[in-house]
Amino acid sequence: MKNIQFIGVGAPMSGSTTLAKSLFSHPDILSPLCQDHKEINFFTHRCDFFKKGPAWYDTQFQECQPGQITGEFSPIYFTDPESPRLISEFSPDVKLIAILRNPVKRSFSAYQSLKRGGNIDVDLTFRQAISKHEVLINCSRYQIHMKRYLRRFSRENIHLVILEELIENPAKVLNQALDFLGMSSPFQDDFVLAKANAGWTPKNRHMHNLSMGLRKTGRLLIPEALYRSQVAYRIKMLLLSLNKAPKEEVDSNFFNELEEEFREDNQELANMFNEGALYWT
Fold first, then answer.
1. Is the pLDDT reported for residue 227 higher than 60?
2. Contact 68, 26 (CB under 8 A)
3. Is 184 helix (H, G, I), strand (E, B) or coil?
4. Nearest by Cα to 115 from 104, 137, 102, 130
5. Are 243 and 65 in contact (CB under 8 A)?
6. Rounded to whole angstroms, how far apart are CA atoms 181 and 240?
7. Residue 123, C-beta contacts closer than 8 angstroms, at least 6 positions apart
8. What phi and psi, each to the nearest 5 degrees, are found at residue 73?
9. Is 61 in contact with 32 (CB distance < 8 Å)?
10. Helix 263-272 to helix 252-261 angle, to the nearest 10 degrees?
């Protein structure tokens, strides 16, 4: 396997795309060659790529010139119990970056994402979705997932990025990541973050189901030449944009309830990484 210097391991819906785009904009950090220039999803059995072996993984990266490094960001590694072992067996000295955010806001963002993807009923409120889908809470219990990495990697090989701090002071937080990666040529103070994956929820369930099914049925109904031009995808995206519900806010009382539920998890995470207090506590 090539000398991949770092791997971003998540958490999902916590700003990994923004962080990846920002770091990969640095001239000495090369993005992978996969379609989104971010996620390879290799070190997980939830996808089939691991079966292709390390030679295939190598093909996903550009050749580095002297002074350059390369890596990837795959949030699926955060919650997969097998990912820490798979990563450590292939590259025991690799540096890991985990980006986290207020766990309640992460859960809410995941709720919106599941709605958009058609994985939960669009009529469910956040409170109802939390009661029916444990994954919304479990993924936000960061200390559970980070413990698995600390069993396989030294504390010095793991760098935490807090999304709220990244938004508040991009250059400072990115330069801390560069220091962790052993890079020079810092980001300038006026660096502007790349925005990505803005949250929204669908308004009408039937229109959303139509939109989500269009690309699949389009393969059968649309002439091949038009399909290859991505016309079905563009129609789908148009319908989705027309079906955006007004911005949904979390009920403040329920938000406070969830913050209390995460209190012990937050404290344990802070203790694990010698943080006096996390940004959101």
1. no
2. no
3. coil
4. 130
5. no
6. 39
7. 205
8. -130, 115
9. yes
10. 50
